[in-house]
Design goal:
With 247 residues, the protein is mostly helical. Helices cover 53% and strands 4% of the residues. It contains eleven helices and three strands. It has helices at residues 10-20, 26-46, 71-84, 88-100, 104-108, 139-149, 164-178, 185-199, 204-211, 216-223, 230-238; strands spanning 115-116, 121-124, 133-136. Strands 1-2-3 form a three-stranded antiparallel beta sheet, with no helix packed on it. Helix 8 (185-199) runs antiparallel to helix 9 (204-211). The longest helix has 21 residues, at 26-46. The protein is globular, with a radius of gyration of 23 Å.
Length: 247
């Protein structure tokens, strides 16, 4: 309201967060309530209007890791799209998200003018990080894109969808016919990409760069699933290095 910044204390800020977002998680309160206030206070402090104050963040809950799609799930889904017929765009969309890490909102905005089949690339515009992101296409995607490109104009959308909800509704219907668990677009796309790339031996930093992740905490804490028997896996890899005991 009209309270001077010099009269604001940390207790007031935390109470404001509870009042504005009573049912929200602590992570939401930190992001949507505390962070904006910190920015305002710092802005005022830099201009000499008040002293800085320390606002403690709420303790955040451990992020919930969704179980990502597997190669078997992806194969069954694509096979069902072929059986149904007329779902070439949906199949290509799911494969595109799974193999490039694109978000569904980025993928459905993709136009043919942003796809270069000769260079085997797709340029995602206006991503969540507010910057363009170039993604490279696999052989399978290039073949599917060539079939979809026939008769299309540069300004046409590659996958023809305009709403993420429509994509998830189609996903749910195909999963039901294929008798497989329904996985939303983010789980069978971005989550699959992260774990499949790591399973293939790609380094964490490279996967983050390829998929457009900026925060290591978000990537490792939310997307990457814990490996089964991690200690045994590391020991097996290190078995290849033999050190001499001769003096």
């Amino acid at each position: 309201g009209d309270r001077p910044v010099t009269a604001i204390v940390p207790f007031d800020v935390t109470q404001m967060a509870h009042a504005l977002y009573p049912p929200a998680k602590n992570s939401t309160k930190n992001r949507q309530a505390l962070s904006p206030v910190r920015a305002v206070i710092m802005h005022a402090y830099e201009r000499g209007w008040c002293n800085p104050i320390r606002i403690r963040s709420f303790k955040e809950e451990r992020p919930h890791r969704r179980k990502p799609a597997t190669p078997v799930w992806l194969h069954c889904f694509l096979l069902q799209c072929e059986r149904d017929g007329g779902l070439e765009h949906l199949a290509a969309l799911v494969l595109f998200m799974a193999q490039t890490g694109a978000r569904v909102s980025e993928a459905i905005r993709l136009q043919w003018s942003e796809v270069d089949l000769h260079a085997r690339t797709a340029l995602l515009l206006r991503t969540k990080t507010s910057t363009n992101s170039l993604r490279h296409l696999t052989d399978d995607l290039v073949d599917r894109f060539r079939e979809l490109r026939k008769g299309e104009r540069d300004e046409d959308r590659v996958f023809r969808y305009t709403c993420r909800n429509s994509v998830n509704e189609r996903l749910k219907a195909v999963c039901k016919r294929a008798a497989i668990k329904y996985l939303p677009s983010h789980t069978c796309g971005r989550h699959y990409f992260a774990n499949a790339a790591l399973d293939a031996g790609v380094g964490v930093r490279t996967v983050m760069e390829a998929g457009g992740w900026e925060s290591g905490n978000v990537f490792l804490g939310t997307y990457v699933r814990p490996r089964v028997n991690a200690s045994r896996t590391v020991a097996d890899h290190l078995n290849g290095y033999r050190f001499s005991r001769d003096i």
